[in-house]
C-alpha cells in the first residue's frame, strides 16, 4: 500500500499526494483535477491484460505482452544518443530491450543473470524483436508480483506517466472508506455501492468493464444527477440574471458582409438571427453553437461580436490553446481592421509590455474586442463594459474563471461554440437552461475529402503525391499522433518524419510543431505555415482543433489506428476547407484490431460528424485508442450524454428525493462532481 503523507484527506489539494510537486499540480489542474478526491473520479480509459506471460518463442511483432526471462547481457552505449541494450532469454527465445534513459539509482539493477519481468509492445528492430522502454520489474526480488488484475491506463497529458497515475490512485484509494455514498439507500439493491464501483474500476477489474458495467453506470448516474442538481440550485440561487440588451445596428454587419469573399449560408444566417434575438434581451444568453468541423462557426462569432461592438460593449473571445487564440486573433484583425476596429490579443506568453498595453485599453474601454486564452480572465484583467463572452472549442471553463468573469462587471452574454454533436433534447434535460443552435449545412462547393487508408509500408509512394500537391501550390499537413506515456517516443516519431521528409523532398520548406515547444515557437511555426512560407507542416495532434489554413489540401496521419473517430474527424477537418479537392491519407501499422479496422472504414465512407459521433460511441469500449476526450461545454468525467441516455429518465425523481430527504447530500453531490467546473447558471 502506498505510504501517504500525513494529513491526506479527500478534500486536500492534489499537492498533498506523494510525488506531486508544483509543476504537476499545474498539469493536474489543467486536467481539471484539483483535489485528492478528483483523482478517484479520474477513471481508466482502458486496461491491459498483463497477467499472462508469453513465451519468447511465441511472441509476435506488434503484440503487447508480458514476458519473463533472464538478462543475458547489458550494453551501455554512449554515442550520439545514449542507450542501453539488454538481451533477455527465457530458454526458448530471445528478445532485446532498448532503453534511452535510466534513472541513476536503477542502473545497478540491470545485471546479467537477473530475472526480469517486462511488459511492452514488440517491434521488429534491426536485430530481431525488441521492446523499447517496457514497464519492468526485477522478478528475483521478494516483493515481485506479477499482476493479478487488469492493469488500468489513465487519460493523461504530456509529462505524466501511467506509473505516476497508478501511484496517485493507490494513495487516493487508501481514503476510499471516508468517501460518502449519498445514494446508497436510494438506489435498487442491484446497483453497486460507490466505493465498490470505484475500487473495481481502478484496481480489481478482471474483465474489461464496459460502460454498461454497473460500476460505470453507478458513477455516470451520479454525475448526471450532479449536473441536474446544479442547474436547479443556480436557478434558485438568486444570482442577478440581467445582462445588457445588445441591440446592435446593421451598419457594421453590412460593411463586414460586403467585404466577405462569400455569402453566409442559410444555416449561418439562421443561427445568427437566433443569437441576435438573444443578445437583444436583458436575460443573459447561454447558447451553445454546434456545427460540424468546417461549418463556419467563426463567422457566426463575428456576427455576434459586431452586434456587441455596435451596441458599445466589449467582447472577449477565448480559445483553449495559444495556437487557436492566435488564429482567431489574425482572423478577426483581418476582418475588423478595415472596419476601423482594433483587436487585442492576450495570452500567457505575451511580453509584459504588450500585456500592459492591452490591459489598459480594455480597462479604459478603448479596445472593443480581445482574443486570447484563459489569460483573458485572470487577475488584473478588467473590462470597462464587457457585454459578450465567446468561447471557441473550449471544454473547460472552471468556477474560478467564472467568478473572475463576474467580477469583471455585470453578467455578460455567453456563446460557446463546439463541433461535438449533442442532441438537443439531452442538452435540455441535463441543462434545462442551455439553448442550442445548430449549423446543419456546410458552406457550398465543398468536395468531401477523399480518404485513403494504407499500411505504413507504402509511405514511400506518398512522396510523388506530395510533390504533385506542392506543384499545384497547395500545402500539406503531416500528423504524428501522441504516443501514450512517452513524450520521448512522440517527439522522436515527429522528428524522424520531419528528417525523412526533408531528405525526400529537398528544397521544400518544412516546418515542425509539437507540444513541447514554447508557445512563441509554436506560434512562429504556425504563422510560417499560415502565410505559405512553410509548405509542409509536420505536427503532433496539437493541431487537432480549429486550425484553419484553407490552402492545405493534403493531410497524412501516421498511426491512424491509434486515434479515435472523433479525433480523426477533427484532424481531417483541417483540409477540404477551400474549393480544391483535398485528400486525407490514414497510415496504419498492421496488424489492425477489428475495431481499428472498422474505425478506418468509417472514416473512408463517412464525412458527417453526427454519423461519426454515433459510430464512435458504438465502437468505444473503455478505450482501445487514445484520447477519448470529449469536447464541448458538456464535458463529463464519466457519463456520456449519448451513451447514457437511458439513465436520464431516472434523474428527476432521484433528484427530488435527495432534495427532500437530505438537501446537504444534494449539495455535496454537486460539489463532488462540479466543484471546480461549469456552473452554467453563474456564467450567464
Ligand atoms: P469551424 O466551424 O470548424 O470553426 P471555420 O469558421 O474555421 O469552421 O470555417 C471553415 C472555413 O470555411 C473557413 O476557411 C471559412 O472562411 C470558410 N467559410 C465560412 N463560412 C463560409 C461560407 N458561408 N461560404 C464559404 N466559405 C465559408
Ligand atoms: Mg473553429
Spell out the key features of this protein.
684 residues, alpha/beta, seven-stranded parallel β-sheet, 35% helix, disordered C terminus, binds adenosine-5'-diphosphate, binds magnesium ion
Mean pLDDT across the residues is 85
Distance between the termini: 46 Å
Q: Beta fraction of the residues? A: 15-25%
Bound ligands, each once? adenosine-5'-diphosphate, magnesium ion
Computed Rg: 26 Å
Percent of residues in helices comes to 25-40%
Largest sheet, spatial ordering of strands: 11-12-10-13-14-9-15
Total beta-strand segments: 21
Largest sheet descriptor: 7 strands, parallel
Structural class by helix and strand composition:
alpha/beta
| DSSP summary: helix tally | 21
The shape is: globular
Low-pLDDT parts are: 1-5, 395-400, 621-634, 677-684
Structure description:
Strand 2 (64-77) and strand 3 form a beta hairpin. Residues 1-5, 395-400, 621-634 and 677-684 have low confidence and may be disordered. It is globular and about 80 Å long. It contains 21 helices and 21 strands. The strands form 4 sheets. A 7-stranded parallel sheet has the order 11-12-10-13-14-9-15, sandwiched between helices. Strands 16-21-20-17-19-18 form a 6-stranded parallel sheet, sandwiched between helices. The two termini are 46 Å apart. It is α/β, with parallel strands linked by helices and 684 residues long. Bound molecules: adenosine-5'-diphosphate (ADP) and magnesium ion.
Question: Strands, helices and their partners?
Answer:
Layout: H1 22-30, H2 36-40, E1 46-48, E2 64-77, E3 83-89, E4 94-99, E5 115-125, E6 128-132, E7 135-138, E8 151-153, H3 162-173, H4 194-204, H5 214-236, H6 251-259, H7 266-279, E9 286-291, H8 297-310, E10 314-318, H9 322-336, E11 343-346, H10 352-364, E12 369-372, E13 386-392, H11 399-407, E14 413-418, H12 424-430, E15 435-439, E16 450-455, H13 462-471, E17 475-479, H14 487-504, E18 510-513, H15 519-530, E19 536-539, E20 552-557, H16 565-572, E21 583-588, H17 594-605, H18 609-619, H19 651-661, H20 663-674, H21 680-683
Parallel strand pairs: 4-6, 9-14, 9-15, 10-12, 10-13, 11-12, 13-14, 16-21, 17-19, 17-20, 18-19, 20-21
Antiparallel strand pairs: 1-8, 2-3, 2-5, 3-4, 5-6, 5-7
Helix pairs in contact: 4-5, 5-19, 5-20, 7-8, 17-18, 19-20
Bound molecules: adenosine-5'-diphosphate and magnesium ion.
Amino acid at each position: 500500500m502506498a505510504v501517504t503523507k500525513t494529513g491526506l484527506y479527500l478534500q486536500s489539494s492534489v499537492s498533498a499526494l506523494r510525488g506531486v510537486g508544483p509543476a504537476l499540480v499545474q498539469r493536474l489542474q489543467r486536467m481539471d483535477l484539483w483535489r485528492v478526491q478528483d483523482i478517484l473520479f479520474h477513471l481508466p480509459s482502458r486496461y491491459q491484460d498483463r497477467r499472462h506471460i508469453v513465451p519468447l518463442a511465441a511472441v509476435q511483432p506488434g503484440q503487447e505482452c508480458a514476458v519473463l526471462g533472464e538478462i543475458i547481457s547489458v550494453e551501455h552505449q554512449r554515442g550520439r544518443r545514449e542507450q542501453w541494450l539488454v538481451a533477455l532469454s527465457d530458454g526458448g527465445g530471445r528478445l532485446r530491450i532498448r532503453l534511452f534513459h535510466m534513472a541513476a539509482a536503477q542502473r545497478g539493477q540491470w545485471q546479467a543473470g537477473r530475472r526480469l519481468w517486462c511488459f511492452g509492445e514488440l517491434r521488429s528492430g534491426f536485430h530481431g524483436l525488441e521492446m523499447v522502454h517496457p514497464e519492468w520489474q526485477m522478478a528475483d526480488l521478494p516483493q515481485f508480483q506479477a499482476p493479478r488484475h487488469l492493469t488500468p491506463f489513465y487519460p493523461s497529458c504530456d509529462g505524466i506517466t501511467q506509473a505516476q497515475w497508478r501511484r496517485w490512485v493507490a494513495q487516493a484509494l487508501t481514503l476510499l472508506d471516508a468517501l460518502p455514498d449519498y445514494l446508497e439507500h436510494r438506489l435498487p439493491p442491484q446497483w453497486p455501492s460507490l466505493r465498490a464501483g470505484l475500487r473495481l474500476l481502478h484496481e480489481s477489474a478482471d474483465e474489461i468493464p464496459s460502460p454498461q458495467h454497473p460500476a460505470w453506470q453507478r458513477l455516470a448516474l451520479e454525475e448526471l444527477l450532479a449536473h441536474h442538481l446544479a442547474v436547479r440550485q443556480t436557478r434558485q440561487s438568486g444570482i442577478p440574471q440581467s445582462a445588457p440588451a445588445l441591440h446592435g445596428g446593421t451598419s457594421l454587419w453590412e460593411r463586414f458582409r460586403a467585404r466577405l469573399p462569400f455569402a453566409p449560408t442559410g444555416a449561418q444566417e439562421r443561427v445568427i438571427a437566433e443569437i441576435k434575438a438573444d443578445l437583444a434581451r436583458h436575460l443573459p444568453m447561454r447558447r451553445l453553437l454546434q456545427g460540424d468541423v468546417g461549418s463556419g462557426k467563426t463567422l457566426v462569432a463575428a456576427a455576434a461580436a459586431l452586434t456587441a461592438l455596435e451596441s458599445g460593449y466589449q467582447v472577449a473571445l477565448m480559445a483553449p490553446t495559444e495556437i487557436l487564440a492566435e488564429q482567431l486573433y489574425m482572423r478577426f484583425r483581418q476582418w475588423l481592421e478595415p472596419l476601423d476596429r482594433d483587436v487585442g490579443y492576450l495570452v500567457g506568453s505575451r511580453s509584459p509590455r504588450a500585456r500592459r498595453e492591452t490591459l489598459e485599453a480594455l480597462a479604459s474601454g478603448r479596445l472593443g474586442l480581445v482574443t486570447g486564452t484563459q489569460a483573458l480572465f485572470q487577475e488584473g484583467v478588467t473590462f470597462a463594459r464587457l457585454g459578450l463572452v465567446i468561447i471557441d472549442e473550449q471544454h473547460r471553463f472552471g468556477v474560478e474563471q467564472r467568478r473572475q468573469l463576474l467580477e469583471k462587471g455585470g453578467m455578460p452574454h455567453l456563446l460557446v461554440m463546439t463541433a461535438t454533436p449533442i442532441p438537443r433534447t439531452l442538452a435540455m434535460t441535463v441543462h434545462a437552461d442551455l439553448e442550442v443552435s445548430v449549423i446543419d449545412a456546410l458552406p457550398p462547393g465543398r468536395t468531401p475529402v477523399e480518404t485513403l487508408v494504407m499500411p505504413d509500408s507504402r509511405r514511400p509512394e506518398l512522396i510523388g503525391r506530395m510533390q504533385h500537391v506542392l506543384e499545384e501550390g497547395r500545402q500539406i499537413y503531416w500528423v504524428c499522433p501522441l504516443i501514450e506515456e512517452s513524450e520521448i517516443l512522440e517527439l522522436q516519431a515527429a522528428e524522424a518524419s520531419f528528417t525523412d521528409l526533408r531528405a525526400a523532398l529537398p528544397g521544400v520548406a518544412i516546418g515542425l510543431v509539437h507540444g513541447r515547444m514554447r508557445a512563441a515557437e509554436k506560434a512562429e511555426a504556425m504563422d510560417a505555415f499560415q502565410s505559405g512560407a512553410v509548405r509542409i507542416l509536420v505536427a503532433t495532434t496539437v493541431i487537432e482543433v480549429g486550425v484553419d489554413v484553407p490552402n492545405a489540401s493534403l493531410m497524412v496521419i501516421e498511426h491512424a489506428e491509434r486515434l479515435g473517430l472523433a479525433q480523426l474527424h477533427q484532424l481531417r477537418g483541417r483540409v477540404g476547407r477551400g474549393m480544391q479537392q483535398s485528400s486525407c491519407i490514414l497510415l496504419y501499422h498492421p496488424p489492425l484490431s477489428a475495431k481499428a479496422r472498422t474505425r478506418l472504414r468509417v472514416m473512408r465512407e463517412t464525412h458527417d460528424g453526427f454519423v461519426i459521433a454515433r459510430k464512435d460511441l458504438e465502437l468505444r469500449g473503455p478505450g482501445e485508442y487514445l484520447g477519448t476526450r470529449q469536447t464541448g461545454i458538456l464535458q463529463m468525467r464519466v457519463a456520456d450524454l449519448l451513451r447514457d441516455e437511458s439513465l436520464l429518465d431516472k434523474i428527476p425523481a432521484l433528484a427530488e428525493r435527495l432534495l427532500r430527504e437530505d438537501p446537504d447530500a444534494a449539495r455535496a453531490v454537486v460539489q463532488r462532481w462540479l466543484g471546480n467546473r461549469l456552473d452554467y447558471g453563474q456564467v450567464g
